Amino acid sequence: MQLDNANSNIGLTYTKTAQNCQHGLLFLSGFGYASWASRIPTIQGKLHLNEAQLGGILFAMPIGLLVTLPITGQLLSKYSSRRIMFFGGLFFSVVLAFIGFSESVWQLCLALFCFGVSRNLFNISTNAQAVAVQALYNRSIMANFHGIWSLAGFAGAACGYFMVYHNISTALHLLWVSIALIAISVWFIKSTIYEAPVPQPKRSFSPCPRNRSSSSR
After folding, report:
1. Cα(178)–Cα(172) distance, rounded to whole angstroms?
2. How big is the chain by its Cα radius of gyration, in Å?
3. Residue of 104, 106, 114, 88 lying closest to 36 (CA atoms)
């Protein structure tokens, strides 16, 4: 009886730890994205961009997302979601700092393209991890994950307001956020769930059947 209780407590602790780690990594994603978004007007003024130019530059981020969609799927079939999530989180945090240091249009375009790539790697692997955490529960907890991301967005926007109000430069603001997010990644990744990669089945493409003549006469 005592052994069963001990095993139950260990399982409960493991489940709660996995959920808390997932919350931390989702907070990283929401806070980082909101931090960048809060400085868009500042970056626009710094580079003297009009609305059309800014819209074209911002398009670099979804391009990065789309380009890496098939690549992320292949990576998840070869490596664990934990490994992809850790790399994506670090990449996301580092690129965020480079956005703040962009001094020209081409630098900003490149930084945003890489930002889109990193978000795709990080978000898809984080969602895969969220599914694994959900499997540990008998009730739905997905709404909690979405709520954490939204709260992180509010926190990132509030931090951005504070930085703008006190005339903190974009470069310094995003650098501080980047360092904090790297620390969050390193702290939480060690207690996430390890999932063995599931290889994708190879698709066999058979040649189109030739037209055969009708039955014998």
Report:
1. 10
2. 22
3. 114
For residue 113, the Cα-to-chain-centroid distance in whole angstroms is 14
CB 86 within 8 A of CB 182: no
Cα–chain-centroid distance for residue 59?
A: 18
Q: Cα–Cα distance between 154 and 79 in angstroms, integer?
A: 33
- pTM summary value: 0.79
How do residues 122-162 score in pLDDT, each as one tens digit?
Answer: 988 888 888 888 888 888 888 888 899 999 999 999 999 99
Query: Which of these, 39, 25, 29, lies nearest to 162 by C-alpha position?
Result: 39
Length of the chain: 217
**Burial of 55 per CB tally in 10 Å (0-12, 13-18, 19+):** exposed
